[in-house]
Amino acid sequence: MRFASFLAAALALAIAGPASAQSWEEYTNREDHFTVNFPGEPAVEKITYKTEKGTSLPGNVYTAKDARGGAYKVTVINYTSAPAEEATAVEEAAKMLRTKGTIKYDGTEHQNNMRSQRISLALPNGRFLLAEALMDRANHLGVAEWQGAVVR
Q1: DSSP state of 27
Q2: Side-chain half-sphere of 55: how many Cα atoms within 13 Å?
Q3: CA 105 from centroid of its chain's CA atoms
């Protein structure tokens, strides 16, 4: 799964400014088909994701925080057992993301010939959220989120 251009931009924003002693690491997960830079080793949580049709699917949530309070999250849901629902997976994820705050950007993009939805939100707590949802060729829905500093 490639979150390359979106995450590269989000991570560049996150690490811009004063240097931090925190070590960023490239994290690869072959089972969930992605590689991303995280500020340290991510915590991993197994979840069960329920689609709008009520299908329960297995997933994993990878999270990490940087020294300045930025929060990074990659959620991967395995749609292998629900191929009929893949067509609506990205839109369902985008719909869920839109409920988190005030939409500042919401656009359909393409990553390596895979449709994705990029969303930027101002959150109620004054922070902002950059997110992207996409379905990869291995039947995995990926949702990458970065929650940044307070917007002033």
Answers
A1: E
A2: 18
A3: 15
How many CB atoms are located within 10 Å of the residue 50 CB?
10
Give the burial class of 83: count Cβ atoms within 10 A of its Cβ; 0-12 exposed, 13-18 middle, 19 or more buried. Answer: exposed
Answer yes or no: are the C-beta atoms of 75 and 142 closer than 8 Å: yes
Instruction: Look at the chain and count its residues.
Output: 152
Answer yes or no: are the C-beta atoms of 73 and 144 closer than 8 Å.
yes
Write out pLDDT tens, residues 105-139: 999 988 778 889 999 999 998 999 999 999 988 89
Q: What are phi and psi of 128, to 5 degrees?
A: -130, 160
The residue with tokens 């291995």 is 138
* φ, ψ at 65 (rounded to 5°): -125, 145
* pTM > 0.85: yes or no: no
Question: DSSP string of 120-145?
Answer: EEE-TTS-EEEEEEEE-TTSEEEEEE
